[in-house]
Amino acid sequence: MININLLSVSNLPKLNKLRKLELSDNRISGGLEVLAERTPNLTHLNLSGNKIKDINTLEPLKKLPNLHSLDLFNCEVTMLINYRESVFTLLPQLTYLDGFDADDQEAPDSDPEADGDGLEDEYENGEEDDDDEEDDLDEEVIDDEEDEDDDLEGEEEEDGVDDEEDEEEDGEDDEEDEADDDLPRGEKRKRNLEDEGEEDPEDEEDDEDD
After folding, report:
1. pLDDT at residue number 145
2. Residues 75-88: b if buried by 16+ CB within 10 A, e if exposed
3. Are 47 and 114 in contact (CB under 8 A)?
4. How many alpha carbons lie under 13 Å from residue 178 in its C-beta half-sphere?
């Protein structure tokens, strides 16, 4: 809820699971006890650019045991003498104030749990699993297509063999026909009759004469 002219957080609903709350650049000057009541599990709170002037205004935050990062940039309270020491003394659960710990060590750029990075990782892992399943399906489809191609090639080869056999048979028939053409007319006719199982009439006459 950044820069929306909030004067207080009195209308904030109860959000037991909320961990990070952005309230910067508003006009909040107090009433922080509402946060302890309605957002008891806060770990990160940003109140930068608000109207907080006194250290005592922050006292209700003592009731947020999990609060370890607090930002008060551009608030008047930061101009007080010993501001940092006073806040760390008031809120001993704090680890970082305005991005630095009590030893002036800078905080990491982000907190995975507060930013929901863990959920993003789970989502990404879920996508990877889906991709793996899709890859498996694609491989199965490719294998099926290759099997179909192999079957088609086998059928084509069989057809080729059959065609070659038919051509050989036709060639043999053609050779026989050519051989018949070379025979004298009477011999050719006799041979045809023998192939058909009939006797030559001339042979029959010879038999009768005999």
Report:
1. 63
2. bebeeeeebeeebb
3. no
4. 6
